[in-house]
């Protein structure tokens, strides 16, 4: 067994006594304060080449033109609802295709051209209720809607082969009988057209938007006839609990066969 040397113990006691005698009596003086600089979590974007207010005005005027052209166009809406299990296998599906047309008197109408029997399990609704998902409106921003929204410039961002301005959009107020969009929009930096949106529809009664169980929607647009950016694709995914385990739901809406100039109409909420 190893023991400490007696002389070493005596020396250690002397050192400890001397150190204790040198300690400050009373309160300990706090160390000098140091300034802490925190890295900002949300860096302000560089301003666009034109004032933001002017940019928003150009976007809304471009939307007026696009909505006017789309409201006078015929096109087809294809709806697809799918359910998947945990392994990714398809559990059930529902499909429907509807043509948006004009009667000889110029009034718009819908014509169902294709539908399938629903094999959905978790979203077990009648076909007429499932068809309502095909009427989900893509968000569009005409001048008359600017009074209802706050737009915040979020910087430039590449989107596929495009260079875009990004904005955060939120409603200034909510209503019970009307849904408003809350999310992000991407605007082409050349012709000021909205080319993509991502967000949700909200109302004063948050749980009663009429779009359940889907919440967030991603919408892409395509260039039609080289001058109009029309909505072409909407998608949304959600997961629900079921007796057999979690079920993933997927909603896909496609807009195809655009033909402009079918009927003259003014700027109004998009159909």
Short description:
The chain has 271 residues and is mainly beta.
Name of the CATH first level: Mainly Beta
N-to-C terminal Cα separation, in Å?
93 Å
Largest sheet data = 10 strands, antiparallel
Shape: globular
List the strand order in the largest sheet: 3-2-1-10-9-8-7-6-5-4
Tell me the series of helices and strands, N- to C-terminal: HHEEEHEEEEEEE
**Structurally, how many domains make up the residues?**
1
The count of helical stretches stands at: 3
User: How large is the radius of gyration?
Assistant: 31 Å
Based on the structure, what is the oligomeric state of the protein chains?
A: single chain
Structure explained in plain terms:
This protein has 271 residues and is mainly β. The chain has one domain (52-259): Clam (outer membrane lipoprotein receptor (LolB), chain A), CATH 2.50.20. 15% of the residues lie in helices and 39% in strands. It has helices spanning 6-21, 52-71, 127-130, and strands at 74-84, 90-102, 108-115, 149-159, 162-171, 180-188, 194-202, 216-224, 228-240, 247-259. The chain has a ten-stranded antiparallel β-sheet, covered by helices on one side. Strand 4 and strand 5 (162-171) form a beta hairpin.
């Amino acid at each position: 067994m190893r023991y400490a040397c007696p002389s070493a113990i005596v020396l250690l006691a002397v050192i400890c006594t001397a150190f204790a005698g040198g300690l400050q009596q009373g309160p300990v003086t706090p160390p000098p304060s140091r300034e802490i600089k925190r890295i900002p979590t949300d860096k302000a974007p560089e301003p666009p080449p034109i004032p933001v207010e002017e940019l928003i005005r150009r976007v809304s005027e471009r939307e007026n033109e696009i909505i006017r052209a789309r409201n006078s166009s015929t096109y087809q809406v294809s709806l697809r609802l799918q359910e998947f299990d945990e392994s990714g296998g398809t559990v059930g599906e529902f499909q429907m295709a509807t043509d948006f047309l004009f009667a000889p008197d110029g009034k718009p109408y819908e014509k169902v051209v294709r539908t399938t029997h629903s094999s959905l399990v978790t979203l077990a609704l009648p076909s007429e209720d499932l068809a309502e998902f095909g009427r989900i409106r893509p968000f569009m921003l005409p001048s008359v809607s600017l009074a209802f929204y706050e737009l915040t410039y979020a910087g430039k961002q590449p989107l596929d082969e495009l260079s875009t301005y990004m904005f955060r959009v939120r409603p200034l107020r909510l209503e019970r009988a009307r849904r408003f969009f809350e999310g992000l929009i991407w605007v082409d930096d050349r012709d000021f057209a909205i080319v993509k949106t991502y967000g949700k529809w909200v109302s004063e009664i948050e749980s009663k938007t009429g779009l359940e169980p889907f919440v967030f929607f991603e919408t892409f647009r395509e260039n039609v006839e080289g001058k109009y950016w029309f909505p072409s694709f909407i998608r949304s995914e959600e997961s629900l609990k079921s007796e057999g385990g979690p079920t993933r739901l997927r909603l896909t809406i496609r807009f195809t066969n655009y033909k402009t100039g079918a009927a003259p109409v003014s700027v109004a909420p998009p159909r």
